[in-house]
TrEMBL record, chain A:
Segments forming domain ABC transporter: 4-245
Lineage top rank: taxon: Bacteria
InterPro entries tied to this protein: AAA+_ATPase, ABC_AA/LPS_Transport, ABC_transporter-like_ATP-bd, BCA_ABC_TP_C, P-loop_NTPase
SMART domains with a match to the protein in the record: AAA
GO cellular component, one term: plasma membrane
Keyword Transmembrane: no
PROSITE patterns to which the protein is assigned, alphabetical: ABC_TRANSPORTER_2
The organism's taxonomic lineage, starting at the top: Bacteria, Pseudomonadati, Pseudomonadota, Alphaproteobacteria, Rhodobacterales
Pfam short name (any one): ABC_tran
The protein's name: Amino acid/amide ABC transporter ATP-binding protein 1, HAAT family
UniProt key word Transport: yes
UniProtKB/TrEMBL annotation, chain B:
Transmembrane segments: 12-31, 38-56, 62-84, 96-121, 141-161, 190-213, 219-236, 243-264, 276-295
Entry GO CC: plasma membrane
Membrane-topology annotation of the record: Multi-pass membrane protein
Organism: Citreimonas salinaria
Key words of the record: Amino-acid transport, Cell membrane, Membrane, Transmembrane, Transmembrane helix, Transport
Official protein name in the record: Amino acid/amide ABC transporter membrane protein 1, HAAT family
GO terms for biological process, alphabetical: amino acid transport
Automatic annotation (TrEMBL), chain C:
Subcellular compartments: Cell membrane
Species, as recorded: Citreimonas salinaria
Name used for this protein in its record: Amino acid/amide ABC transporter membrane protein 2, HAAT family
Keyword flag Membrane: yes
Domain of life: Bacteria
Bilayer topology term: Multi-pass membrane protein
Primary location class: membrane
GO molecular function: branched-chain amino acid transmembrane transporter activity
Transmembrane segments: 48-69, 76-94, 100-118, 125-148, 172-189, 260-284, 296-315
One Pfam family cited in the UniProt record for this chain: BPD_transp_2
Entry keywords, A to Z: Cell membrane, Membrane, Transmembrane, Transmembrane helix
InterPro entries per UniProt: ABC_transp_permease, LivM-like
Species classification: Bacteria, Pseudomonadati, Pseudomonadota, Alphaproteobacteria, Rhodobacterales
GO CC, alphabetical: plasma membrane
Length: 251, 305, 328
């Protein structure tokens, strides 16, 4: 059974169709990447898959369960976590506290009114593990708002990991990250492959073609091609769609 | 019974028209500038004091009304320039604190300038008396005049909002602020105009009601909260919502007070019905608000919650 | 274990001053009655009790305003529930303060749950106006309660009893009882803020979208905090009624709600002890200005407006700056 199944998803804002009959599957353990030029509707698609935005029609299932109407927190509790293209963190909290809260969401009850949460080693240890996985453990005690942009991207990933998801929706995790930092991030995702099912939205073509098992190409809200990276790269329709766009598909 | 009903219905509409005049400005200020203005009720009070003063000075209600208008414009502009303008980018908490401060300042200033005893404004000669409505029922001419004047202003406002350039900007601004600034409009000027327009309408409501109410420092308070209910029910930023909300709130408030106990008498014994009715009546509009919000958190015509 | 030690240094400077400030305030409060005795002005002790009661209310409001970013403009309603619980029960011969407090809390819990559930479906400006409207609804309800004097209020024939004793008739005993309750509720609030629940509540304040993306539904946590805050505020009302030996709808006017917000903000939001200090400052300022001029509200209002206008990012911004400076 596919882990994540999207069937005939549609979404319009007024006359503008941003998601046009999108269907795709993500198999367990697969890294499925979605690429597409700016304005292709990638972020709107993620919003519908994560429960932030309701589709006009269509169906989304996770492990065979219909989650089309489930809220974002409900989906997270079922194992579908996401990261944001524009960093969403708790700015006044420490890095550790950010992630410990994500751990707490799935561990025991949050309706505990006594007991110092700072001293809960179970939460802190699990949070440290997620921080280590995302490569930001050395910054655990820093206030989140004071991190660099690259560190924010890693914290985003750590928070998603800390919810112990089966499936990760990664919305341009490399946005604004360059050079060595970007290479290290790709290596980190590579190390995660197989253990998590991932749907990766990304602009960085080198990263996509290095990481993805399958690639889908989204243009004007429609998926115009899906397949192994090499097939997609050779697809004439994809080449046409990208022609004139400043982003080149590496040959 | 029918007579009483018609009478109270007219009273409800008259109150509704006044509430609309106050709510129109408030809903635009909320919708377009996203500013919580607790001092809006103060403007209603100030309008009444202005007309009382000018009418006493000139000996004519009409001159009082005419002179009130430039004074209201001045108050609106000054308030916007000195305080409100600086609150646009602030948190709602800051806006609450500053405008709460304004309420205190205004109430005390009014007490210092006009004293604590209520003022009264004589009815203009031509509008005193009453007209036969349904035999033997008569209705005061002045209240009819308020309804007519209020509806005329409402109509003018609708035309302005729906058929002029500034109206188009207001509508656009209430739903999408970023778009208006993208059009290259001087937002600062637009905000000043909106706020002043709202201030004048609130002052006008206060001035119109002055001859049939005693003019005192508390008059802005109860009206402010009712106006909030109107704006919330109608949906923030919606003039149409403010109009329907105002009429709805006013009619429910007026009829509920009279007919609540009568209806309750059908299920309770008379003294218990009277007691329960007296307690429920003032809560009716809030229960109405709760019910509407439960079904539609953004109000009847609101886009954003 | 290294985990705890890495997070502890970041936490300690935030927490310690808050508790320290509270301890200083509590010590001063405890030393106040002997000073009053020395000054031989027993009226001062009544003012003291009033300040302590408002400190409880302001602290309770800070739980949702400071930690949950919910600007409730209807909190005076809960003060009113506390005062009327005393008046109504005592008119039926129930004078025990524990029973009266329990009734106040029960009524507040129901009201906060229902009105909170409706208000919390909305955000920002809506939330402020709706809480204000519900507060006003409670206000009008008690105005129409003619059996208890309606608009004019209702004088208590006696103060509440504690385990059958009329010890609270003594001004000093009432003062210290209020102080004990204030300290107890501070300890409780302090625990809540530092608990799992408190962290979730603060997280929602920081970034609600992020909290949803890690699996929290903000509504239920916010509503719980709203109910807790309302119940705590009503306890302040129980003591206010005893202090004044009089109840009236004036305790629940929207001005009173505004004053509670002013108290919280004056002392610094989201610190608990700040709200207590703010209650002291606001009420002393009121007493002081009130002695100077009958138009003290003019100056108080002017003070508020100027403070918002001339602090660079408003009062809230000013306080955030101070807090961040302290945290570093």
């Amino acid at each position: 059974m596919s882990r994540l199944v999207v069937e005939n998803l549609n979404k319009s804002f007024g006359a503008l169709t941003v998601t046009d009959d999108v269907s795709l599957t993500v198999e367990p353990g697969e890294l499925h990447a979605i690429i597409g030029p700016n304005g292709a509707g990638k972020t709107t698609l993620v919003a519908q898959l994560s429960g932030q935005l309701a589709p006009d029609s269509g169906r989304v299932t996770l492990d065979g369960r219909d989650i089309t109407r489930a809220s974002m927190p409900e989906r997270v509790r079922m194992g579908l976590a996401r990261s944001f293209q524009i960093t969403q963190i708790l700015p006044g909290f420490t890095v550790l506290e950010n992630v410990a809260l994500a751990v707490q969401a799935r561990q025991g009850s949050s309706f505990r009114f006594f007991g110092d949460v700072v001293r809960e080693t179970a939460l802190n240890d699990a949070a440290m593990a997620a921080l280590a996985e995302a490569g930001i453990d050395e910054r655990a005690a820093a206030i989140a708002s004071e991190l660099s942009h690259g560190e924010h991207r890693r914290l985003e990933l750590a928070m998603a990991l800390a919810t112990k998801p089966s499936t990760l929706l990664l919305d341009e995790p490399l946005a604004g990250v360059g050079g060595e930092e970007s290479d290290a991030f790709v290596a980190r995702l590579m190390a995660m492959k197989g253990r998590f099912t991932m749907l990766l939205i990304e602009h960085d073509m080198d990263a996509v073609f290095a990481l993805a098992d399958r690639v889908s190409v989204l243009v004007y809200g429609r998926i115009i091609a899906t397949g192994a990276p090499d097939e997609v790269r050779a697809d004439p329709a994809v080449r046409t769609a990208y022609l004139g766009d400043e982003e080149e598909i590496p040959a | 019974m029918m007579n009483l009903f018609v009478l109270q219905l007219l009273n409800g509409v008259q109150l509704g028209v006044l509430l609309f005049l106050i709510a129109a400005g408030l809903t635009l200020v909320f919708g377009i500038m996203d500013v919580v203005n607790l001092a809006h009720g103060v403007l209603y009070m100030v309008g009444a004091y202005f007309v009382a003063t000018f009418a006493a000075l000139t000996g004519s209600f009409w001159w009082g009304l005419v002179l009130m208008l430039p004074a209201a414009v001045a108050v609106g502009l000054i308030l916007e320039y000195v305080v409100i303008r600086r609150l646009y980018t602030r948190s709602h908490l800051d806006q609450v604190l500053a405008t709460f401060g304004l309420v205190m300042i205004a109430n005390e200033t009014v007490k210092i300038v006009w004293g604590v005893s209520p003022l009264s404004v004589p009815l203009p000669e031509i509008l005193s008396g009453s007209v036969p409505l349904m035999d033997p029922l008569r209705y005061p001419v002045y209240r009819i005049a308020i309804i007519v004047a209020g509806l005329a202003v409402a109509a003018g406002l609708f035309v302005t909002i729906n058929h002029t350039r500034i109206g188009m900007l207001l509508r656009a601004g209430a739903t999408n602020r970023a778009m208006v600034s993208a059009l290259g409009i001087d937002i600062g000027k637009l905000f000043a105009i909106v706020f002043t327009l709202g201030a004048v309408l609130a002052c006008l409501a206060g001035a119109l009601v002055a001859p049939i109410l005693s003019v005192d420092t508390g008059m802005g308070e109860s009206v402010l909260i009712l106006t909030f209910v109107v704006v919330v029910i109608g949906g923030i930023g919606s003039i149409k919502g403010a109009f329907l909300g105002a009429i709805l709130v006013a009619v429910v408030d007026t009829l509920g007070g009279v007919f609540g106990p009568i209806l309750l008498r059908a299920v309770l014994d008379p003294s218990a019905a009277g007691q329960a009715g007296r307690m429920l009546a003032p809560m009716l509009v809030y229960i109405l608000m709760a019910a509407i919000l439960f079904a539609r958190p953004a109000g009847l015509f609101g886009g954003r919650a | 274990m290294s985990v705890v030690s890495t997070s502890a240094p970041a936490r300690a400077p935030v927490l310690a001053p808050r508790v320290k400030a509270a301890l200083v305030l509590f010590t001063l409060f405890a030393l106040f009655p002997p000073v009053v005795t020395a000054l031989d002005d027993p009226f001062l002790i009544l003012i003291g009790t009033r300040i302590l009661a408002y400190a409880i209310a302001a602290m309770a409001l800070d739980l949702i305003l400071g930690y949950g970013a919910m600007v409730s403009f209807g909190h005076a309603a809960y003060l009113g529930f506390g005062t009327y619980a005393v008046a109504i029960l005592s008119s039926y011969g129930i004078h025990d303060i524990l029973l009266q407090t329990a009734a106040a809390i029960a009524l507040s819990a129901v009201f906060a749950f229902v009105t909170g559930a409706i208000s919390l479906r909305t955000r920002g400006v809506y939330f402020i106006m709706i809480t204000l409207a519900f507060g006003q609804m409670a206000f009008f309800f008690f105005i129409s309660l003619s059996a208890y004097g309606g608009d004019d209020g209702y004088g208590l024939r006696q103060r509440s009893t504690l385990f059958g004793s009329d010890v609270l008739e003594n001004e000093y005993a009432l003062y210290y009882a209020t102080l004990v309750v204030l300290i107890g509720l501070f300890a409780l609030s302090h625990r809540i803020v530092g608990s799992r629940f408190g962290r979730v509540l603060t997280g929602i304040r920081e970034n609600a979208t992020r909290m949803e993306a890690i699996g929290y539904s903000p509504f239920r946590y916010q509503l719980t905090a709203f109910v807790i805050s309302g119940c705590m505020t009503s306890i302040a009302g129980v003591f206010l009624a005893n202090q004044a030996e009089f109840v009236s709808p004036a305790f629940m006017s929207w001005h009173r709600s505004g004053e509670l917000i002013v108290m919280v903000v004056l002392g610094g939001i989201g610190t608990l002890s700040g709200a207590i200090g703010g209650a002291v400052a606001a009420l002393l300022l009121e007493e002081f200005l009130g002695k100077l001029t009958e138009h003290w509200r003019l100056w108080f209002g002017l003070f508020l407006v100027l403070m918002v206008l001339f602090s660079p990012r408003g009062i809230t911004g000013l306080i955030q700056q101070i807090q961040q400076g302290r945290a570093r």
